[in-house]
Every structure is written in C-alpha cells, then in structure tokens.
C-alpha cells in the first residue's frame, strides 16, 4: 500500500492520492479558508469507513435490507507534550431498514473486535467504543 502526498498551494493544502488515483484533500483546518480535512479528522473518517465497510458487508451476507447507513464518529484528544493524540473514539452507527437489531449489534462487535484494521492499528493507545441504532432505537 502506498500513498503519495503533494502540496498544492503555498500554504498547507495537500492532495493525498492512492495507487488507483483516488484522492482526498488535507489542510490545516485551524487556518481560515481551509479546503480540506485535517489529518486528525481523516483518522476519524478512516475509522468510520473501515468499520462501516465491515458492518455493511456482514449485514449484506446475512441478507439484511439496509435502506440507510450512517456513522457519526467523535474523538476525544489529550495533550501529550506538544501533540494532541486521540484518547478515545466513539462510533455511532445509524441504520434504517429491515434489519435484525441483534445482527446489527453483532456486526459492529465483529468489526471492532476482529476485522477493522484501522481501529486495530489505534489500539491499545486509543479506547474505541461504539453504539448501534436500528430504525431509531438504540440496541
């Protein structure tokens, strides 16, 4: 796996591109007019994307009818010397459709305990939690 980062303006805007040519923009979001996400926001996005792929994949294999899937991710940071790494990350899955709530909860559990490479990379330094809602009801 390889990512290429290119600076695309005179400030802090970078384009990160993967081997397939897909890219995201990273920027210093503490500056006005930022045109990309911060690197720390991209970590939260990676947790959401990785676990989201797992959950959807597991539920599709179980023939669950997902009409809508959303994840909200919040990170809590702590000061360590001059850096502010994540101390904790919480993922809230919001699913709609004909979905067995027990299967949705199990899919999230499997993602974080077994499959999600991003969350596994962050452990044990970051406490990762999750919540699952199916059709508005917390499971």
Automatic annotation (TrEMBL):
Source species of the chain: Chryseobacterium sediminis
InterPro entries: KH_dom-like_a/b (IPR015946), OsmC/Ohr_fam (IPR003718), OsmC/Ohrsf (IPR036102)
Record PANTHER family: PROTEIN YHFA
Pfam families: OsmC
Protein name: OsmC family protein
